[in-house]
Amino acid sequence: MENKVKVLLIEDEKNICGFISKALEAQNYQVRTAYTGKDGLSQATSLCPDILLLDLGLPDIDGLEIITKIRAWSAMPIIVLSARTREDEKVKALDLGADDYITKPFGTSELLARIRTALRHSPLIQSRKTEPVYQAKDLKIDFLRRLVTRKGQEIHLTQNEYKILSLLAANSGKVITYDTIMSHVWGPYTDGNNRILRVNMANIRRKLETNPAAPEYIFTEVGIGYRMLEDESAW
Ligand code: CA
C-alpha cells in the first residue's frame, strides 16, 4: 500500500476546501476535510495527520484555540490559512505553536512549498539529513564548527549575531517571530522592544548580504519576524 502523507484541512469555506483538496490530491497527498472546529479536533485525534492546514475564522471554535488544544498533545506541523490581515493574529498563532501561516488568497505552488517546508522540519518525519550544515546559494553554515562562509570566505560574527543567524538557519523557510528570537538570544525577560534585535540584524545583513537593502538570505516579515532562505542541503 502506498504511504501517502495525510493532510487534515479545517476550513469552513467549501470552495476553498475543494480547491485545496484537488491541488493536494494531484500531488499524491491524502486529504481529509472538516468544516467546523469541533469536527476538525475530533478528526485530528482519530486520524493523527502528518500536517494540519487550519483556517482561523471558523463558525464554532476560534482557530487559535484549536492550535492550543492540538499543541497540548501533538507536535504535528500546523499551517494557518489566514484571511485576516491583522498581524497580531498571525503572531499569536505562531507563538501558540503554529509552524507557519499563509495569507488568503494564495496560489497552489506557494501552498505546496509551505507544506514541504513544514514537513521537512517536522519531528514526526525522519529527515535524511546527516550533516549539520546549512547551505543556500553562496552561504554555508557549519553548525558544529560554528563556521559561516560565503563563497568560501569566512564571515566573522559576534556571539549574538551567530545565535540569531543559526536559529533562523536551523528553521529556514519558516517565519520566526521577533519574540522567539529575542528570548532565544537575550532570555525570556527582555522587554518588548525589538531595537537591539534590529541593530544586530542590520549588522548581520551588512556582513552577509551583497546589498543589505535587498536581502537574498534573510527576509523581513513586516511586523512579525524574519524568514531565512530555505536550506538547499536538507534532503
Ligand atoms: Ca473561515
UniProtKB/TrEMBL annotation:
Instruction: State a single Gene Ontology molecular function.
Output: cis-regulatory region sequence-specific DNA binding
Pfam families, alphabetized: Response_reg (PF00072), Trans_reg_C (PF00486)
Residues with 4-aspartylphosphate modification = 55
Q: SUPFAM superfamilies, per this entry?
A: CheY-like (SSF52172)
Residue ranges of DNA binding: 131-230
Q: Would I find Ion transport among this entry's keywords?
A: no
The residues covered by the Response regulatory domain are 6-119
Q: Cite the OmpR/PhoB-type domain residue spans from the record.
A: 131-230
Q: Can you cite a GO biological process for this protein?
A: positive regulation of DNA-templated transcription
Q: Name one GO cellular component term.
A: cytosol
Q: Does the keyword Transcription regulation apply?
A: yes
Provide the alphabetized UniProt keywords: Cytoplasm, DNA-binding, Phosphoprotein, Transcription, Transcription regulation, Two-component regulatory system
User: What subcellular locations does the record give?
Assistant: Cytoplasm
Tell me the superkingdom of the source: Bacteria
Q: Which Gene3D superfamilies match?
A: 3.40.50.2300, 6.10.250.690, Winged helix-like DNA-binding domain superfamily/Winged helix DNA-binding domain
Which PROSITE patterns does the record cross-reference, listed alphabetically? OMPR_PHOB, RESPONSE_REGULATORY
Q: What does this protein do?
A: May play the central regulatory role in sporulation. It may be an element of the effector pathway responsible for the activation of sporulation genes in response to nutritional stress. Spo0A may act in concert with spo0H (a sigma factor) to control the expression of some genes that are critical to the sporulation process.
- Indicate what this protein is called per its UniProt record: Stage 0 sporulation protein A homolog
The species this protein was found in: Candidatus Limivivens intestinipullorum
